[in-house]
Design a protein that fits this description.
Helix content is about 40%, strand content about 15%. With about 290 residues, it is an alpha+beta fold. Strands 4, 5, 6, 7, 8 and 10 form a 6-stranded mixed beta sheet that branches. A 4-stranded antiparallel beta sheet has the order 2-1-3-9. Helix 7 runs antiparallel to helix 8, helix 7 packs parallel to helix 9 and helix 8 crosses helix 10. The longest helix is centred in the N-terminal third of the chain and has 17 residues. The relative contact order is 0.11.
């Protein structure tokens, strides 16, 4: 039987080797969850909060939480702040997006069979219940794109299961399409837009309905064409729409649903859309 202390030292050794190869890594505790290094980021998507101008790790005095804690710096991995984490570590995780990779997590034999029939062959890694298919290239992460299929790339971490077999293939459009083919349905009831009495009573200054329709179409296009800084783009777009159309009562649930759907197609959650919309309204005093 292997002594637990030897297992934990082996985790750190593995992490240091991966970091030397350019793969950002972090320790995992039991349950495949990260350690709570940064209390300010606990239980949140680090870098994904609406008030931040750009996505990415927050400014923390210690290693951040979750995927944002992943690092290739050997001094950080060996730092006193992480000493306790490595003593208790149950595994090593890595940040695929930070290494320019995307992991298609196939968590069932049926999912693996689907991938073999549908996706280009690439490097594969065996997992407890299925396989990881790893591609060269990044994209927004997304869970549940199919039954037992998750995509882990930017702002997500994957457990290290070994180097795998096969040659890395370029990230195919078939994988990108999984995250955007069917945007998550907007749930208007919990996040319904409500106008203030002042806005509802204001006279509409738009001469034709086409002005509003053109504005919504341009906003949807701006979000859809964003290739980076998705959170910041969504917030800026919501702010622009509300600053132009938010005080006269023209906006309807259908308009908002179109904006939310565009944001969700880029990886935003319904809750994040609602929070970002609320933050934009608060900033404008609506």
């Amino acid at each position: 039987m292997t002594h637990p202390a030897l297992i934990r030292r082996d985790h750190l050794s593995t992490a240091l080797k991966l970091a030397a190869d350019g793969l950002p890594v972090l320790p995992l505790r039991k349950g495949k969850v990260p350690f709570a290094n940064c209390p300010a980021c606990l239980y949140t998507a680090c870098g994904g909060r609406p008030h931040m101008k750009t996505p990415g790790p927050c400014t923390c005095p210690h290693p951040c939480h979750g995927w944002a804690a992943a690092t290739t710096d050997p001094w950080t991995l060996n730092s006193p702040q992480w000493a306790a984490a490595w003593r208790e570590a149950a595994g090593v995780a890595y940040y695929p997006g930070g290494a320019g990779l995307t992991v298609v997590d196939l968590d069932h034999a049926d999912a693996v069979a689907w991938a073999r029939d549908t996706l280009p062959t690439t490097r594969t890694v065996r997992t407890t219940r299925g396989q990881h298919w790893i591609y060269q290239g990044t994209m927004p992460s997304a869970n549940g794109v199919r039954d037992c299929v998750d995509i882990k790339s930017t702002m997500a971490y994957a457990r290290w299961r070994g180097p795998g077999t096969g040659t890395l293939a370029a990230l195919p459009e078939a994988v990108r399409a999984l995250a955007v083919k069917e945007p998550a349905p907007v749930q208007p009831a919990p996040y319904a837009f409500t106008m203030s009495a002042q806005a509802a009573e204001s006279a509409c200054r738009h001469r034709t309905p086409a002005f509003l329709e053109r504005g919504i179409a341009m906003a949807v296009q701006r979000i859809s064409e964003a290739t980076s800084g998705i959170h910041a783009t969504v917030y800026a777009t919501f702010l622009a729409v509300l600053s132009t159309h938010g005080r006269c009562g023209c906006l309807t649930e259908d308009h908002i649903a179109r904006l939310f759907a565009a944001a969700q197609a880029k990886g935003e959650t319904p809750r994040h859309c609602a929070d970002t919309w609320a933050n934009a309204r608060t900033r404008l005093g609506l």
